TrEMBL record:
Name recorded for this polypeptide: Ion transport domain-containing protein
GO molecular function, one term: voltage-gated potassium channel activity
Entry membrane topology: Multi-pass membrane protein
GO biological process entries: action potential
Localization annotation: Membrane
Organism from which the protein derives: Alexandrium catenella (Red tide dinoflagellate)
Keyword check for Electron transport: no
InterPro entries listed in its UniProt record: Ion_trans_dom, VG_K_chnl
Signal peptide: 1-16
TM spans (from-to): 82-100, 134-151, 171-188, 195-214
Length: 226
């Protein structure tokens, strides 16, 4: 119950810290100190779980069972950005900490131990993680190669005001394209052909990881019902 309270308070502090009036009234330092304390506690919790995994049946008596499981990955995602920010700060590199704090909202997934329904997420991940990893790699390749092709075909196209004149910019727009939205439409003839191929192949393949997860999630629900 203490851990549950800390998780809820941590998420609440992130939400409250984004409100200027509350941030000014309480003080930014107070939010920062509370966040540091939570990160230290959750870091210790992560290391203890990793250390004890070989004697825990839920993790298959393997450290990799926890580290590669859904909630092990969630725990790590919650910690890495903060410690990366801390390490880069020691090297004189600073970037907005609010983005790091915003990721802490995902800590609600760590309520799995207290909300039984959340265990379905872990079951779904275990059932489909190989498919998701493979299809995610294919999706990334489609995203990257598509961005390169759009860059080669559309750079210098004044009708789209330089939107695809660099590969990073093209990756930004192709990510939007793969979501089914078209932020720019005035393509060259070859660009239009590429758009058709993206609609027929790219978007469908890009959706496989999400579809696989929800299919596994449905199977987990059905299994529980039975």
């Amino acid at each position: 119950r203490v851990r549950m309270a800390i998780i809820i308070l941590n998420v609440a502090s992130v939400l409250a810290g984004s409100v200027p009036e509350i941030r000014e009234a309480v003080g930014q330092d107070a939010f920062a100190r509370f966040e540091r304390g939570c990160v230290v506690l959750f870091s210790v919790d992560y290391l203890l779980k990793l250390y004890s995994a070989p004697v825990v049946a839920d993790y298959g008596f393997r450290r990799s069972g926890y580290a590669q499981g859904f909630f092990g990955i969630v725990d790590l995602i919650m910690l890495l950005p903060y410690w990366s920010h801390f390490a880069l700060g020691l090297c004189g590199v600073n970037y907005g900490l609010m983005l790091v704090r915003s990721l802490q909202c995902m800590r609600v997934l760590q309520l799995e131990e207290y909300v039984q329904a959340f265990t379905l997420l872990d079951d779904a991940w275990c059932n489909c993680k190989d498919t998701v990893k493979t299809s995610a790699l294919i999706a990334f390749m489609i995203w990257l190669f598509g961005a390169v092709l759009f860059f080669e075909l559309e750079r210098g196209n004044e009708a789209i005001e330089g939107a695809l004149d660099s590969i990073p910019s093209a990756m930004h727009f192709t990510a939007i394209f793969l979501g089914g939205e078209w932020a720019v439409v005035d393509f060259t003839p070859l660009g239009k052909v590429l758009c058709v191929l993206y609609c027929l192949l790219g978007i469908a393949v890009f959706a496989i990881p999400v579809g696989s997860f929800f299919e596994a999630f449905e199977a987990a629900i059905t299994g529980d019902d039975e």
